[in-house]
Every structure is written in C-alpha cells, then in structure tokens.
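During the reporting period, we have paired protein sequences with backbone structure tokens. One record among many follows, to show the layout:
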Amino acid sequence: MEEVIRKLKEKYAVNIQESKHKQFAITVYPKNSIGEANQDVGYKLFNQENDWFLVNLQRDKEYPLAQFTTKETGFFALYLATIEKKDISNDPPLTELSQIEDNLENGEPILKKSINIKFFSLKEEKKGAIYIYEENGKFNVYYLNLLGEKIWITKGRALSTSLEVVYNYAKRLEEFEEIIAPWKSTLSIQLKDEELLKRTFIRK
C-alpha cells in the first residue's frame, strides 16, 4: 500500500482520513499546473466494515466503480484507475482495420501482428478475450471474462468500427496483464477480484 501511495503522490493530490473506529478513506485528485488539486474529477477508496469501495468523483457526485473484499486489492484498484495508460490512438493497425468493410476474417492477421491471440477472438467466444460477432448485418463486441460472464462493450456497429473496438480493448487486456504480473507475487488476488481489477483498468 505504501508503494501505491508513493506512486499516486507523484501526480495526484492525496488526502487520507483514518478514524479510531477503523474507518479509512483516501481521495485523489490530479494536480493542476501549480501543484494544487483539480477537484473536477478524482477517485475515492473507502471501507465499510470489511468491504472496500472505489468510486469516481465528478464535482459533487460519486459514481460507484467496484467493490473489493480486501484493503490491498482496493488500493491496487485505485492505482489502476489512475495509472497513465499507453497511448494507442495512433497505432498503425487501427488505420488498417478502419479500411475493412465487408469481411470479418480480414481483421485477424492485422490483430495478430500486434496482440497476443489469447486476448481476442473473431470466430468463437473465448474466456479472457474480446469477442466480435455479426448480427443482422451489424457487429457486436463483448468481453467474456474468466468466470464466464459477458461484459458488453458495443452493439450494432459497422465492421470497421467494431474491429477498432476489438483492437483497443484487447490491447488494454494485454497491458493489464503486464501490469498485474509483478504484483501477483505480493498480493493474494482471488479470480473474482482480478476480474474486477481488470474492468477497473479497461473501464468497463
């Protein structure tokens, strides 16, 4: 936890409140140009007895993101919510995918060049992967998590746009695995919590 707080303080204004009744809350806001908290958008992690809740703060409103069973996992979720992700908006495969209009299978070799195939599927649903399929001439995309649950990403869109969505989310899954790997040696993370952490990171 100390490592997470140290990393947060590099770019965020961090406020920690802890009471003698074992109630804890940490609030983080990005720093503005003069190092003060920009309170338009931020995050808050707090506990209620043994449960830990992560919320997104937007001005005076709170939007729930996830609930965890341990403080350590909650802190890691806070870190994942605030971490600066890789900029993939100008990746060349996105341009190639945007030009595919009529054949889903044409997207596979492009995706394979940049992403481990375990993170996406164009033929059948696969646990831990982003899946795309056609329905009534349009395309739907969802993530099938390792628990077998569907997390919908988009529905009823054109092929090229849907393939770009597959690329973006599959790259985020790949990035998440890179980030969480070294932490697994120090954190005991249940599969359910890992999937919640993953959704926190990919924002779905």
Observations:
- DSSP finds six helices and nine strands in the chain.
- Residues 159-180 form the longest helix (22 residues).
- The helical segments are 2-11, 71-82, 92-97, 107-114, 159-180, 191-202.
- The chain has two domains: 2-84, 92-177.
